[in-house]
Design goal:
With about 210 residues, this protein is of the alpha/beta class. Helices cover about 20% and strands about 30% of the residues. The protein is globular and about 45 Å long.
């Protein structure tokens, strides 16, 4: 399975001719959706979902499937795709990928903002994408997509999450708000934890791909 990082919080998974995209929001490149058969969306914030680009993707591929929580689905009523609502504990197959749903809520953010629903996705028992939360996956996770910067998180939470999950490899996500100095700090944090756990932990640059076992 091939994993490609796109801007900020978007990743693309490819297995043979099957293409699955997670969280193609407004901070990521729209080309992430080229040829996609299915899209997973963790929550409703604009850096994770953009209705207009999903509409264009669905017009290009009328069989496009979108799997997400009920809050997001309510905002996509004008998108001509097959939209499926999922919740914590669900499991489904889409475009040749097996997916399990883990988690219910976004991490607490601004005190005057309501906490929105947030579902994480475990794809092919290999890649876990928690969305905007440090949700315990509840199972061994070979590849973790770990948030490394956000208004709702502290660096210590990221490190604690990596130590709790103990993945074989971890790649940075949610890093699109950082300039080069901030990205350098993320690289340093991940490098230190990689050395400590003797595991691959690093930041993929936008457009960079890795092949997973």
């Amino acid at each position: 399975m091939k994993l490609t990082k796109f801007g900020h919080a978007c990743v693309r998974l490819e297995k043979g001719d099957s293409v699955l995209v997670i969280d193609p929001g407004s901070f990521s490149e729209e080309s992430a959706l080229d040829g996609a058969q299915t899209v997973l969306i963790t929550h409703e914030h604009f850096d994770h979902v953009e209705a207009d680009r999903l509409r264009r993707a669905a017009e290009a591929n009328p069989s496009l499937e979108i799997w997400t929580n009920e809050g997001v689905a309510a905002t996509l009523t004008d998108v001509p795709a097959k939209i499926q609502v999922v919740r914590h504990g669900d499991a489904f197959d889409t475009a040749g990928f097996g997916v399990k749903v883990v988690g219910e809520w976004h991490a607490p953010n601004h005190p005057d903002m309501p906490t929105v629903r947030n579902v994480g996705f475990l794809v092919e028992e290999e890649v876990f994408y928690p969305g905007d939360a440090f949700t315990p996956p509840g199972v061994e996770v070979p590849t973790l997509l770990v948030p490394t910067n956000a208004p709702w998180m502290r660096a210590s939470e990221m490190v604690e999450y990596l130590r709790q999950v103990r993945p074989a490899r971890a790649f940075s996500t949610h890093d699109g708000l950082l300039n080069d100095l901030g990205l350098g700090i993320v690289d340093s944090w991940l490098g230190l934890e990689s050395d400590r756990q003797k595991a691959e932990m690093r930041r993929l640059k936008p457009g960079e791909s890795v092949t997973l076992p």
